[in-house]
Every structure is written in C-alpha cells, then in structure tokens.
Amino acid sequence: MSRHSSPSQRSSGQVSSGQVSSEDLPRLAIVEVTRHRPDRPAYHAKVQVLNASAVSAGEQGGWRVTRLAAADMTPAELLAATDDSDAILIMGGEDITPRFYGGADGYEGETRHYDAADDGQIALVHRAVERDTPLLGICRGLQIINVALGGGIVQHIEDGIHRNVNVPVDQILREHPVELLGGSGLLDSLGSVAVSVQSAHHQSVGRLGAGLVPAAIAPDGLVEAVEHESAPITGVQWHPEAPDAPAEQLPLLLAALQRQVADARLADLVAA
C-alpha cells in the first residue's frame, strides 16, 4: 500500500464543491528542539518567535501543521508522531551534541546540548532518505541533516558576517547576502542567484554528509545551504522565518516542499 493516501481517502467526509477540508491539506510536521527553557528566558523567547513564525507561514501556505518538540519526547515517540507527515521542517536551536559527529566538548561558544532532540531529529533525516519524504532544515536543521548523513561540524567560526556579537539575544540576527549555485533546487525555488538572508550561527557544516552537495555559498566561502543528490532534502543555514527576512522567502521554500509532496503522491499513484 502507498504510504501517501489520496485526498479522498484521508477526508473524513464529503465537502461541497470549491471547499477544501483540513483533512485534504498536506501534512507538515514542524520539529523544534524543546518547548521548555526556564533557565534561558530571553533565548527561549527569541526561538519561540521564530518557531511560531514558521507555523504561521505553514498554515497560511496551505499546510495542516503539527508542531513537535524533539527533546520533550523519545525518538520513538517523535517518529510515531510524524509517521503520516507528508513533509518535515526541522527548526533551529542549540548546538548538536559533539559525539554525534565525532567532536569534543569544551569548544568556544558551546551551548547546552539536547541528546534526545539530536537522536530524534537524526532519525527523522534517516527515515526521510529511506522514504523520499520532503524535508527542510533551518540553521541547526541543516546541521542535523549533515550530521545524520555522516558529515562534520565546524564547532566555532570567527566572528564575521553570520551573527551580531556582544548584543542582546533579540538582536543577534544579522543580514548578509548568499549566492545560490546554478542547477540547485534552491535557485529554482527562490528565483535569484543573489539573495539576502538573516543568520545567527556560530557553527557551520564542515565535511559534507553522504549524498549532500552545496546549494548556496556566503561571501566568506562558508556553505550556507545543502541539498541531497537524490532525496527531496534541503538545508539552509539562515533563518527565512525571521521577522526581518524577505517576506517571500519562507513561503517560497514551503511551496517547493509542496511540489515535492505532489511529486511523491503522483509517484505513489503510478506505482500502485
């Protein structure tokens, strides 16, 4: 049986002509790190603004959104909760635990680690590759994709264009340009070689994971986006969901996910 049911199979009842039941909408799981950071209220508030913005963009873009926090459940529970999702969006947050990519603790700028979130989100990437489930990773989400596929992390990058330093956390996002590479799906999705982005990261992808290729480069040469060679998986290091990001950026990326979902459903129908 196909893993993607048809709209009529998913609908709980008939709807009149011209109306769309919520059951007919593609299902998007938005997976953040945690919903609880009592020890870091300012950071938590900033992250929640970004996550809520992604949820809003998903709902306005015609998705049925489920919001989940990977550190607040077991990896098995996370996989079960997203088993029928048509697409996955992995959000930003804390650094990945170094043991997942063969790194050491004690590096400059090290944040708190959430092993359960790392385990669960890495499992999501593995399953997405196996099932060809469309998946988009934002900031930490890009790094999760890379680590899940055997890649490495540069644990601390020099202060430069990628974040503001010595400012309150609410002001950490910084604007800079990136160049989208020819032939990439991102270039097709965003429609311009040069785009302006908002970022706030102190780490970057190092060695690329299996099947991943660069899709965007920052002016300082850092890889700012990756795509999988065969699976519908994309990661961007920047924050298209940020309030000051170009308004069309995240909607265009979510629209690309919807096209990938439609392609997957068509492939299922042909194979049935």
Unreliable spans are 1-17
Largest sheet: 9 strands, mixed
- Rounded to the nearest angstrom, the distance between the terminal CA atoms is 7 Å
* Main structural class: alpha/beta
The backbone outline, from C-alpha atoms, is: globular
H-E string? HEHEHEHEHEEHEEEEEH
Mean pLDDT: 91
Count of helical regions: 7
Beta content comes to 15-25%
Rg (C-alpha, Å)? 18 Å
Kindly report the spatial arrangement of strands forming the biggest sheet: 2-1-3-4-11-10-9-6-7
Question: Care to count the β-strands?
Answer: 11
Describe this protein's structure.
- Helix 3 (75-81) crosses helix 4.
- The chain has 272 residues and is an alpha/beta fold.
- Helix content is 32%, strand content 19%.
- The strands form 2 sheets. Strands 2-1-3-4-11-10-9-6-7 form a 9-stranded mixed β-sheet, sandwiched between helices. A two-stranded antiparallel ribbon has the order 5-8.
- Strand 9 and strand 10 (223-228) form a beta hairpin.
- It is built from 7 helices and 11 strands.
- The longest helix is centred in the last third of the chain and has 23 residues, at 249-271.
Compact summary:
With 272 residues, the protein is α/β, with parallel strands linked by helices. The chain has 7 helices and 11 strands. Mean pLDDT is 91; it is low at 1-17.
Descriptive tags:
alpha/beta; two-stranded antiparallel sheet; globular; 7 helices; 272 residues; disordered N terminus; single chain
Question: What is the secondary structure topology, with strand pairs?
Answer:
Blueprint: H1 7-10, E1 27-32, H2 41-60, E2 64-69, H3 75-81, E3 87-90, H4 115-131, E4 135-138, H5 140-148, E5 153-154, E6 174-180, H6 185-190, E7 194-199, E8 204-205, E9 212-217, E10 223-228, E11 233-236, H7 249-271
Parallel strand pairs: 1-2, 1-3, 3-4, 4-11
Antiparallel strand pairs: 5-8, 6-7, 6-9, 9-10, 10-11
Helix pairs in contact: 3-4, 4-5
